[in-house]
Design a protein that fits this description.
Order of helices and strands: EEEEEEEEEEEEEEEEEEEEEEEEEEEEEE
Number of helices: 0
Strand order of the largest sheet: 1-3-30-29-28
Number of strands: 30
Radius of gyration: 21 Å
Helix content: under 10%
Shape: globular
Length: 360
């Protein structure tokens, strides 16, 4: 068995205090996180002239799921759409099971389910040249079972999350007037967790003990909320107008960045919805989480880490040791558990590299 830790090294990130928000001592210093970083070798057999790979935001710490997309001349096949999904074992550096889409069917998101794969997909109407009829499919071997379906929208599944064997996913549907929401799949049965008909879109950020933390956006606002069945535990609305908003959540807080705001960062307590504001100015950041830390990279590739302590958000700059010749690629990353994350470097037109980051 090959080892995937081909370039493991320990990183002690030196802390340079930028600022803190709240009641803090000027002599107080936050403990810098210590990481182990390992490069993951990915060896997928692709048609180099026509196929591209994209890792999906799911991993159990041993395997990843790749969406393989070929060239499509059809103008109604847009965005990242899979011709096939491949399970990749990065401990063995080997491709496992492959799930191929039927003709005129394109995959979007996928997660393991029971003895197979659960994935969202959409079908296209070639005669009328538009996408229609989305589905949630459970596939085991060559056998496929339709779990859920709707009409007319292509990019309907923004999120798909596994929590204690239950799969939660977002949807949009026009089959009986517009509505969108969150559903869960348990023992092959779907249940609507939340549904709305007066918002433009919905995202699912996190599920913990059955509580769904969702984002809903309208024309000029984004609302974050926690829902437990039919009960809304808390909600927080941001007026974005023509601006942007970024967010990510760990086990305790949702951290939001909003441009054009004097208080540029807001941390929301996931238990009670209480907010802490901070006037640190960042430019168009990407964020991921590992342990209690938020890792941040702005548009100028400056990197920071942040924690929420008491009534303040503390943000400090990441400084790599001299022997570290590359920065952590934080622009696209996702959690593989509380204390680890997968980082992806490179764009569609570049060679992509993959790393696993573990908190020591």
């Amino acid at each position: 068995m090959k080892k995937y830790c081909v370039a493991a090294l320990s990183l002690m990130l030196a802390a340079v205090l930028l600022t803190g928000c709240g009641k803090t001592s000027s002599n107080e210093q936050m403990k810098a996180p210590e990481f182990e970083v390992s490069k993951i070798n990915v060896n997928l057999k692709l048609n180099a002239e026509r196929e591209e790979q994209e890792v999906l935001p799911y991993s159990d710490g041993k395997k990843m799921i790749f969406r393989i997309q070929g060239e499509h001349e059809d103008e109604f096949v847009v965005g990242a759409s899979a011709d096939r999904f491949v399970i990749y074992d990065f401990a063995d550096e080997s491709a496992g099971k492959e799930y191929v889409m039927d003709k005129d069917v394109y995959g979007k998101l996928a997660v393991p389910y029971k003895d197979g794969l659960l994935y969202s997909c959409y079908r296209v109407d070639r005669r009328n040249k538009h996408p229609y009829h989305w589905q949630i499919i459970y596939q085991k071997g060559d056998k496929k079972m339709v779990i859920d379906q709707g009409e007319e929208e292509m990019n309907v599944q923004e999120s798909m999350i596994v929590e204690d064997g239950v799969i939660y996913y977002t949807y949009e549907d026009w089959s009986d007037g517009y509505h969108c929401g969150v559903r869960k799949l348990e023992d092959d049965k779907t249940v609507t967790v939340a549904e709305y008909d007066n918002i433009d879109g919905i995202g699912l950020m996190k599920v913990e003990n059955g509580i769904c933390y969702i984002s809903m956006w309208g024309d000029k606002s984004v609302e974050y909320s926690a829902i437990d069945g039919k009960k809304v535990l808390w909600e927080k609305t941001f007026d974005v107008n023509d601006g942007n908003i970024r967010s990510n959540a760990n086990d305790e807080y949702l951290l939001c960045w909003q441009n054009g705001s004097e208080e540029n960062l807001t941390a929301i307590n996931l238990k009670n919805g209480e907010a802490i504001d901070c006037d640190i100015q960042l430019k168009d950041p990407s964020m991921t989480t590992i342990g209690d830390y938020f890792l941040i990279e702005d548009e100028n590739k400056n990197q920071y880490y942040a924690v929420v302590e008491g009534d303040q958000i503390k943000v400090e700059k990441l400084e790599m040791p001299e022997e570290q010749q590359y920065k952590l690629p934080l622009s696209y990353s996702f959690s593989t558990g509380k204390n680890s994350a997968i980082l992806v470097s490179g764009n569609w037109d570049e060679k992509r590299e993959y790393y696993i980051l573990k908190l020591k």
